[in-house]
Design a protein that fits this description.
This protein has about 500 residues and is α/β, with parallel strands linked by helices. It is built from 18 helices and 22 strands. The strands form four sheets. An eight-stranded mixed beta sheet has the order 12-11-10-13-14-15-16-17, with helices on both faces. Strands 3, 4, 6, 8 and 9 form a five-stranded antiparallel beta sheet that branches. Strand 19, helix 15 and strand 20 form a beta-alpha-beta unit. Zinc ion binds next to helix 11.
Length: about 500
C-alpha cells in the first residue's frame, strides 16, 4: 500500500486496515474524516475535493515517513478521496499500526493534522440554498479573506504552509543575526526530563529554530504534572511524555527535528545519549540523574546546564568543558541523597518556579550555542522566588575532584533495595511487615491505607523519636517510593538487613 494516495472511488477502510496488519504490532489506531451536513452554520448538500496530485502525493508521503521516524511506529498510510462526495461519505482515512497504542494514537493524530495543514487539497461546498464556496484552504481561512473561488484560484497550487517560521525578532539582535541563526539551525541539544524545568526549555529551544532537539523522559503524563508543565493537556494523561512533547513541539515549529526518547537515563545509556548532541540541558528532578549526567558530560567534554528547584528556591549552574571549570562534583563530591529532602511530589511547588529556572536554562543554552561567552567565571546562581532575591556563589574547580578522569558511571546498586508488588496483599503475602512512613497530614488527604500494619512518620524516624524494632523484615512505603527508598538505604547502612522499599510507593499499587 502506498503511504499516501488519492482515490476517485469510495474509500475502503477494511482493505487498508488489512494492509497495515503486522504480527509485531500490538496497537492500531485509525482516523476517518466524514462529510458532514453543515459548515459554519450553513446546510451542506454535497462536496467536491480537488488536489494538485503530484505535489500532494509528494508532501503526503513525506508526512507519513516523518510520522514513522518520529514516533517509531511500524506502518502507516493515508488515503484521501477526490471528486464528488455525498453527506456521510468517507473523505479521508489514516491508519497506524505500532508496537504500543500510545505511539499509534500520537502518530495518527500527527498525520491527519499535518495533512490538513500541508497537503494542497481543497474542497468546494455545495449548500442546500444552491450557493457554493471553496473552503478549508489555509489562506482562505485568514481573517478578512473573501471565500470565493476566484480569490482561491490564484494560490490553489501552493503546497507550502501559509507561513514560514520567522526568526526576525531574535535575528535583529547583533549577537544573533543570520550567522547566529545558522548556528542554531546546525545545533543539537539533548533535554533530559520533560517536566517543570524541561517544558519551558523545550518550548523556547524549539521556537528558536534549533536543528535537532532530543527529549528524554521515561515517564507518562500525570494529571498532577499539568500545573507546572502546560505543554501537556488533560487528554494526554497516561501517554508517554517524550512522545506527546515531540508531537506538541512539532506544531510549534516543524523546522526542528525531534528525537523522542521515551526511556529513563541510566548508567547504561547516558554516554551514548550525551555523545549524540552538542549540548545537554539537565532538567531531571533527582540528584542521582544529575550526577550521572554530570559524569557523562565531563567524560564526553560536552557543555551542560543544570538546574534544580526546591519549593520557592532554584539553583542554576553551567558546566563548560574547560580545565579550570568546576563540575557538579567539584562542589558536592558526593551526590546528595534523593528522597530525604522532598521532591516536587512531596515538597510541593508552584508552576512558575521551575518555569523561571527552565527559561534561564534555555537562555544559557542559546548563549552557549551562539558563542556569547559573557560569563568569565563559573558560578552557582541561587534564586529565591518567594522574596525575589538572587545570590551568586563563585564556584571553583576542586583539584581533588579529578573530574577529567571520572571512572565509568557508578550508581549504587538499588536493585535489591526495591521490591515491586501488584498490590498490598501481594506485598503482605511475601512475609514482610508493611510500614507506612508518610506524615500524618498526608494520610489524612491521600489514599486510604487502613490495611497497613505500621505507621511511623519519616520525620519521627529521622529525628530519632521512633525506630523500627530491630530484626524485623520490613517493606517501607511512602507516596511515590522516593522517601522509602532513601530510608531503606539508610537503614541498611545502620545494620537492618531485611528492609526494602515499595517501588513506586502507594501510587503504584493503588493505580
Ligand atoms: Zn569536578
Amino acid at each position: 500500500m502506498q503511504p499516501f494516495s488519492f482515490s476517485q472511488q469510495p474509500l475502503e477502510p477494511e482493505r487498508y486496515r488489512a494492509a497495515l496488519s503486522d504480527a509485531a504490532a500490538g496497537g492500531y489506531a485509525s482516523f476517518e474524516g466524514w462529510v458532514r451536513d453543515h459548515s459554519d452554520g450553513r446546510r451542506v448538500q454535497r462536496l467536491e475535493y480537488e488536489a494538485f496530485e503530484s505535489l500532494a502525493i509528494k508532501e503526503g508521503t513525506r508526512i507519513v515517513a516523518q510520522a514513522i521516524e518520529r514516533f517509531g511506529i511500524r506502518r502507516a498510510a493515508c488515503v484521501h478521496r477526490v471528486g464528488d462526495l455525498a453527506i456521510g461519505e468517507l473523505a479521508v482515512w489514516v491508519g497506524v499500526s505500532s508496537a504500543h497504542r500510545a505511539e499509534a494514537f500520537a502518530a495518527c493524530r500527527y498525520i491527519i493534522d499535518e495533512v490538513k495543514h500541508r497537503v494542497p487539497i481543497w474542497k468546494k461546498e455545495h449548500y442546500v440554498d444552491g450557493d457554493s464556496g471553496w473552503v478549508n484552504c489555509e489562506r482562505c481561512a485568514q481573517p478578512g479573506h473573501e471565500h470565493d473561488a476566484g480569490a482561491h484560484a490564484d494560490h490553489r497550487h501552493d503546497a507550502t504552509p501559509a507561513f514560514a517560521h520567522d526568526y526576525s525578532r531574535q535575528m535583529a539582535l547583533p549577537q544573533v543575526g543570520s550567522a547566529g541563526q545558522a548556528r542554531l539551525r546546525n545545533a543539537s541539544v539533548l533535554v533530559i526530563g520533560a517536566g517543570g524545568l524541561g517544558v519551558p526549555v523545550l518550548q523556547y529551544l524549539a521556537a528558536a529554530g534549533l536543528g535537532r532537539l532530543g527529549i528524554v523522559d521515561g515517564d507518562r503524563v500525570e494529571a498532577s504534572n499539568l500545573h507546572r508543565q502546560p505543554l501537556f493537556g488533560i487528554e494526554d494523561v497516561g501517554q508517554p511524555k517524550a512522545v506527546v512533547a515531540a508531537a506538541r513541539l512539532a506544531r510549534l515549529n516543524r523546522d526542528v527535528r525531534y528525537d523522542s526518547l521515551a526511556e529513563r537515563v541510566s548508567a547504561g545509556n547516558v554516554d551514548a545519549l550525551v555523545a549524540d548532541y552538542d549540548l545537554v540541558v539537565e532538567c531531571s528532578d533527582n540528584f542521582a540523574t544529575k550526577f550521572l549526567v554530570n559524569d557523562a558530560v565531563v567524560r564526553a567534554r560536552r557543555p551542560a546546564i543544570f538546574a534544580s528547584v526546591y519549593q520557592y528556591e532554584g539553583q542554576l549552574q553551567v558546566y563548560r568543558p574547560r580545565e579550570d571549570w568546576p563540575c557538579l562534583r567539584c562542589l558536592w563530591p558526593e551526590a546528595p541523597q534523593d528522597g530525604l529532602v522532598g521532591n516536587c511530589a512531596e515538597a510541593g511547588v508552584l508552576g512558575p518556579v521551575p518555569a523561571a529556572l527552565g527559561a534561564l536554562q534555555a537562555m544559557e543554552a542559546l548563549k552557549l550555542l551562539l558563542g556569547m561567552q559573557l560569563e568569565a567565571l563559573s558560578s552557582v546562581h541561587v534564586f529565591d522566588l518567594l522574596n525575589l532575591q538572587w545570590r551568586t556563589l563563585h564556584a571553583r574547580r576542586n583539584v581533588s575532584c579529578n573530574h577529567d578522569r571520572v571512572a565509568a558511571a557508578q550508581q549504587p546498586d538499588l536493585a535489591d533495595l526495591e521490591l515491586a508488588f501488584a498490590d498490598l496483599d501481594a506485598a503482605r503475602a511475601s512475609g514482610l511487615t508493611l510500614v507506612d512512613i508518610r506524615e500524618p497530614w498526608e494520610r489524612m488527604t491521600d489514599a486510604p491505607d487502613e490495611s497497613i500494619e505500621m505507621h511511623v512518620p519519616l520525620s519521627s524516624l529521622l529525628e530519632g523519636r521512633s525506630a523500627l524494632p530491630p530484626g524485623g523484615r520490613y517493606l517501607i512505603i511512602c507516596a511515590h517510593g522516593v522517601r522509602s527508598l532513601a530510608l531503606a538505604e539508610r537503614l541498611r547502612g545502620i545494620g537492618y538487613r531485611e528492609v526494602y522499599s515499595l517501588r513506586g510507593g502507594l501510587a503504584a499499587v493503588t493505580a
